[in-house]
Known about the structure:
By secondary structure, the chain is an all-alpha fold. The chain has helices at residues 10-21, 26-33, 37-51, 58-80.
Amino acid sequence: MPKNKxxxxxxxxxxxxxxxxxxxxxxxxxPDYGQTAxxxxxxxxxxxxxxxxxxxxxxxxxxxxxxxxxxxxxxxxRETL
Length: 81
């Protein structure tokens, strides 16, 4: 049975994301840092998703829809006053 690896340090993850954004490929970084290229690609995808409002989680989408409905009602109430 494979041994579980300890969690990755946040600093390492951020460093690898910065290196990929600077132009290095995950395949190029993989042997030097001991991470698989797929792991690095997953980290990049997660980082992009955090920055992109279109990639909200279910709870965030529901909250956004609720807030938009509430905002619409408040605008309508303000206009009628």
